[in-house]
Structures are given as structure tokens and as C-alpha cells.
């Protein structure tokens, strides 16, 4: 199979590495508007060829759209305009608007809307590595709008990446993503801004940072080019989650200000229940 990857960042490049090494793809064609990324992916052996969009689509059996969601909203209809029997899948973190954009497209059944739940705070082809997706979940949304052939191809692809597949509609996906992914990044970024503001006046504060701080603030290193569009496209759900999150912060603040040790202990104990979910 010939796979064309549009967008040679962390996700697209990591997929390319394992799809080739594990035998799903015989040839990987890369497309990226960033010439430095394209050249790096070629030099690193992540892709076999770099092509322009039209040629890369024409030669592919499967096209993976691994660009930021705002770019994907523009590109996806154009990709579907150019295909014949090829299958197309995206890997965007928000699905509602993207699926709506192509709902009436004549090639809609050739498209599978997916979100592999994996990643790091790093970006670009040099950040890519084998095994990024192993053991993780991937979401396929609005599967009823895709053909059986397209679904089976994408299912086989994700099985090759050792991912478990979950099906849901785009609306539910965007709500869940806001709670388990998007708010985590905002929390990390807000903490980073808080510490950086303090650092202006107390230069040694970061010398005290330990593993807990590092793990909590790690996501603040994620690129704005990827995350700003995600927050914009899922703004309604993200705003709802933020309201709830701020509510809990205010509850913690009041308990601490009031020196209410009983309430503080209860809040911590309640939060510890997340272990039941994470340790399943």
C-alpha cells in the first residue's frame, strides 16, 4: 500500500515510521508546507518521497491528514475533490466542525474521521518515534458516514499501530476531549504563566522545581500552532469545562483561606477517586 501523509509533524511522522516498519505501507509519500520539516522527514527516512499535494494524492492508496485542525478544515474538502477510490483519514483533536464541513461531499464515504489519543509536548519530524501509539486508544467518529471498505482499512491501520478502537459521534467526542485532553493543556499553560509571572521578581523559584512541577507543566511546552486552533474549534465545550474547573479552584481557595482542614481533606480524598479510573 502507498500511504501519503499530509503534515509531517509528531503524529504524522510517528504514524509513518510504524506503518512502514510494520508492513502496512510499502511506500510513504510525505507532503508538508514547511520545507524544513519535509527535508528532515526525508533525511531521517520517515518518508520515501516528498511530493506536491496533487501528485501525492494521485499516487496514494491511503491519505492521512495530519495537519492542525484549522488547516485540515481548509484542506480536507480539497483532498476529497481530488480522489478517485482512495481512502482518506484525519487525526484531528476536534471532530464536529470537520465532519460537518464534508458531510454532503460526494466522496464523504471515502473519509474516516479519527483521533488517535497519543502525543507528546514536542513537535516536528525530529520528535517522531516508533511506538508512540502502542496501547493507546483511537476514536473513530460518525462511522456510519464512511464506507465499509474505508472503515476496514482504517481499522487495520490502527491495529497495526497497536491501538484499541472506540466509536462515538463527533459531538460526544468533542465533549470528552475537552474534559480529558484540552483542559489538561490549559491547566498546564495557566500554571506555567503563573510561575513565569512570579519568576520575574524571584529569580530562584524555578531552582526549587521538582518532578511534580515538571510533570504538571510539561504540556505547556506544546506548540501554539496546534493548540490555539483546537481551543478555538472546540471553544463551547472548553469554556464549559473551564467554568467547572474554576468552580473547583474557588472551592479549594475558600477552604484554604478559611483554614478549613476538614474541607481540604475531603476535597483531596474526593480527588483521589480518580485512581479508580486511571488504574483500570
Automatic annotation (TrEMBL):
<keyword id="KW-0560">Oxidoreductase</keyword>
<dbReference type="Pfam" id="PF20463">
    <property type="entry name" value="PDH_C"/>
</dbReference>
<dbReference type="InterPro" id="IPR036291">
    <property type="entry name" value="NAD(P)-bd_dom_sf"/>
</dbReference>
<dbReference type="Pfam" id="PF02153">
    <property type="entry name" value="PDH_N"/>
</dbReference>
<dbReference type="GO" id="GO:0004665">
    <property type="term" value="F:prephenate dehydrogenase (NADP+) activity"/>
</dbReference>
<dbReference type="GO" id="GO:0006571">
    <property type="term" value="P:tyrosine biosynthetic process"/>
</dbReference>
<dbReference type="GO" id="GO:0070403">
    <property type="term" value="F:NAD+ binding"/>
</dbReference>
<dbReference type="InterPro" id="IPR046825">
    <property type="entry name" value="PDH_C"/>
</dbReference>
<feature type="domain" description="Prephenate/arogenate dehydrogenase">
    <location>
        <begin position="1"/>
        <end position="280"/>
    </location>
</feature>
<dbReference type="GO" id="GO:0008977">
    <property type="term" value="F:prephenate dehydrogenase (NAD+) activity"/>
</dbReference>
<dbReference type="InterPro" id="IPR003099">
    <property type="entry name" value="Prephen_DH"/>
</dbReference>
<dbReference type="GO" id="GO:0047794">
    <property type="term" value="F:cyclohexadienyl dehydrogenase activity"/>
</dbReference>
<protein>
    <submittedName>
        <fullName>Arogenate dehydrogenase</fullName>
        <ecNumber>1.3.1.43</ecNumber>
    </submittedName>
</protein>
<dbReference type="InterPro" id="IPR050812">
    <property type="entry name" value="Preph/Arog_dehydrog"/>
</dbReference>
<dbReference type="InterPro" id="IPR046826">
    <property type="entry name" value="PDH_N"/>
</dbReference>
<dbReference type="InterPro" id="IPR008927">
    <property type="entry name" value="6-PGluconate_DH-like_C_sf"/>
</dbReference>
Amino acid at each position: 500500500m502507498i500511504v501519503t501523509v499530509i503534515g509531517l509533524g509528531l503524529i504524522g511522522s510517528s504514524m509513518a515510521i510504524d506503518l512502514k516498519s510494520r508492513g502496512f505501507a510499502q511506500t510513504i509519500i510525505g507532503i508538508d508546507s514547511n520545507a524544513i520539516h519535509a527535508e528532515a522527514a526525508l533525511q531521517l527516512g520517515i518518508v520515501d518521497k516528498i511530493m506536491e499535494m496533487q501528485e501525492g494524492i494521485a499516487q496514494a492508496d491511503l491519505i492521512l491528514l495530519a495537519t492542525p485542525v484549522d488547516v485540515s478544515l481548509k484542506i480536507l474538502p480539497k483532498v476529497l475533490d481530488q480522489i478517485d477510490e482512495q481512502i482518506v483519514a484525519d487525526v484531528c483533536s476536534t471532530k464536529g466542525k470537520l465532519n460537518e464541513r464534508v458531510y454532503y461531499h460526494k466522496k464523504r464515504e471515502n473519509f474516516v474521521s479519527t483521533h488517535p489519543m497519543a502525543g507528546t509536548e514536542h513537535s516536528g519530524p525530529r520528535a517522531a518515534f516508533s511506538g508512540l501509539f502502542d496501547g493507546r486508544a483511537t476514536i473513530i467518529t460518525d462511522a456510519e458516514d464512511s464506507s465499509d471498505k474505508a472503515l476496514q482499512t482504517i481499522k487495520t491501520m490502527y491495529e497495526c499501530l497497536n491501538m484499541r478502537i472506540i466509536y462515538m459521534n463527533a459531538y460526544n467526542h468533542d465533549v470528552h476531549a475537552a474534559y480529558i485532553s484540552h483542559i489538561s493543556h490549559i491547566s498546564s499553560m495557566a500554571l506555567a504563566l503563573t510561575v513565569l509571572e512570579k519568576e520575574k521578581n524571584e529569580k530562584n523559584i524555578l531552582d526549587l522545581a521538582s518532578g511534580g512541577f515538571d510533570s504538571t507543566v510539561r504540556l505547556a511546552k506544546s506548540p501554539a500552532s496546534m493548540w490555539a486552533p483546537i481551543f478555538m474549534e472546540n471553544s463551547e465545550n472548553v469554556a464549559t469545562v473551564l467554568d467547572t474547573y474554576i468552580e473547583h479552584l474557588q472551592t479549594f481557595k475558600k477552604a484554604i483561606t478559611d483554614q478549613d482542614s476538614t474541607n481540604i481533606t475531603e476535597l483531596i480524598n474526593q480527588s483521589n477517586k480518580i485512581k479508580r479510573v486511571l488504574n483500570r
